[in-house]
Amino acid sequence: LSWSEEGYRIHELDPDIELSLEKALQFPHPEARPKVRRAFERCVEEGEPYDLEHPIVTAEGNRRWVRTVGGPIEEEGGEIVKVAGAFQDLTERKRAEQALKKERERLRHHRDLLRRTQEIAKVGGWEYDLSTDTVEGTDQLNQIIGLPEGEDVTLERSFQFFPSDGRDTVRKKVRRCIEQGDPFDLEVPLIREDGQRRWARVRGQRQQREDGSVRLTGTLQDVTEQKEVERVLREEQEVLREMYHITADRDTAFDAKVRRLIDLGRSYLGLSYGYLTRISKGTQEITHARGEHPTLCPGERFSLSESYCRNTVEEGLLVIQNAPEEGWRGDPVSETFGVDAYIGSKVEVGGNLYGTFCFAAEAPRETPFSEREQTFVELLTLWAGYEIDRHRATRQLEKQNQRLDRFASVVSHDLRNGGGGGGAHGGGRAHRRGAALAGPYERAHRRHAHPDVEPPRGRRGRGRARRL
Question: Which of 48, 93, 221, 419 could pair with 201 as two cysteines, CB 3.0-4.6 Å apart?
Fold first, then answer.
């Protein structure tokens, strides 16, 4: 098998290397290798020429695209004795084709995006003819303001779709646009023909035609949903900011923080009751609660099977917008607590179940719980689990410190009294006894101060501990 210099260059192979057919057939990319092999075999066996475009992996491990052509060379008797062909480096062309393909896909995507945007943006177009004092709108415009399709209005009549607090602003902007040519872009409240209040973005500009006539053209977009999203985001930011202030307050005790967080959650979620529970051996105890409810009060205990929290423990997060409509009618929890709206999340401490953090109301909720609201409750449970775990660790550390202090007091007492009245030998024994006592104390102190450092334990040390 022999290649030209270009063949070696394309495959990034040293020209001094001898090639075999089998080695040459390893250069096509694995996904193209069977196709190339079959084409070559048909050429040899049946005399069928081939012309392929396929990727290769060069000797340097680089991916390239090549065009491979080949055909049989026959002797006079028709016997195929050779296959001759050529390689063409298509890498740059393929890159250009792929870039062009991506650009076409991008343009197609943008066209589809623009089409979908026009469908869902709720934008209507309008034009005001000064000569006839008529505002003509598209069907979408009339749908937004609640007019029948094809109905036109006068300019003054169009101003009536805006409430008094925004009407004068719109009127001034329109007049200024007519007289001075200043375009305008406003977001103002809108009152539909049926009295429903919406928010609209109104844009307009002056156009002078060839005949000298002047018209205003523009758009009106219903931005009510956008305004609602902005309101929700502002509210969420305020809630998260307040949540941070509460949890980061080092001067406030845990119980007070829980009460403030429950009140924050009740306000944010629009639910009357909030409570933190502890679960042990199938019994649920309310440790903290806010809201005037006859049963959901601190200190109340009840079976876990009689509460929504039994499902919260299993699912991690449970949301109920309307209990009767969601299959909870007749459940013991309805008779026990009488709440039809609920959201709760499981509290874990050290990877183990501690209890639940929940909010509820007697009446069903008008809207489903949003992802942001669910995340808010989950954040509360994470904080509660962390704080409870930290509080436990602090108590354990305080107990250890107390034990160490008591032990140090005993050692100090023995050291003070060990040298009195015993003579030289007695004093020596007391000193050795004090040193023996001091050794464990010092090791315990070091272990407390550096819990990650384990002091060495030799055979001799264990012996002294047993004697002590």
Answer: 221
